[in-house]
Write a sequence for this structure.
């Protein structure tokens, strides 16, 4: 009990310190990252976003602060704002497989399937073992196939879903369940 009370007291003091530092326009990115995460954990999304944005004014190229900011935006389906943040990051980190993946994801959510496909492919080119990029790219090709009925789109969907399946064996059950749900929409089974 005493150790927990001591930890909680110190955590409260640390949060109070970070709030004072933020109010005094401290420029340390870690303060904004920690405080923003604290607000996000408390479900105070708008306050978390404000803190991250303030921290980014002082530290625009801090990758960790940018990642936390983008994650909160994505978790709260603020895709337009996330797209703007990712574009800024891609200007500095063009060879980041994660930023390219995230930009593909945002474009997919905004139904910009061609852009999503391009950014997922770039992410895979940068890191071929990216399960999420292969899987999401497969889903993009399924959507493209539904719109075009082009066999090439279907074949790419199958190839990418199978690549994802082979990359992450622990997610095979999830992929099989998704495959069962898609059977009604597709003329083939994505994974046997």
């Amino acid at each position: 009990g005493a150790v927990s009370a001591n930890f909680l007291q110190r955590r409260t003091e640390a949060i109070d310190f970070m709030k004072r530092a933020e109010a005094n326009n401290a420029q340390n990115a870690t303060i904004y990252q920690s405080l923003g995460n604290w607000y996000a954990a408390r479900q105070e999304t708008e306050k978390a976003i404000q803190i991250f944005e303030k921290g980014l004014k002082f530290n625009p190229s801090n990758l960790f602060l940018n990642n936390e900011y983008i994650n909160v935006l994505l978790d709260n389906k603020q895709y337009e704002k996330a797209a703007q943040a990712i574009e800024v990051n891609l200007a500095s980190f063009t060879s980041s497989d994660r930023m390219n993946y995230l930009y593909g994801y945002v474009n997919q959510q905004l139904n910009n399937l061609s852009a999503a496909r391009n950014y997922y492919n770039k992410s895979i080119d940068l890191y071929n073992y990216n399960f999420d990029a292969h899987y999401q790219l497969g889903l993009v090709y399924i959507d493209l196939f539904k719109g075009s009925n082009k066999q090439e789109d279907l074949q790419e969907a199958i190839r990418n879903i199978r690549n994802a399946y082979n990359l992450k064996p622990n997610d095979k059950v999830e992929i099989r369940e998704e495959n069962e749900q898609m059977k009604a929409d597709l003329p083939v089974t994505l994974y046997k």
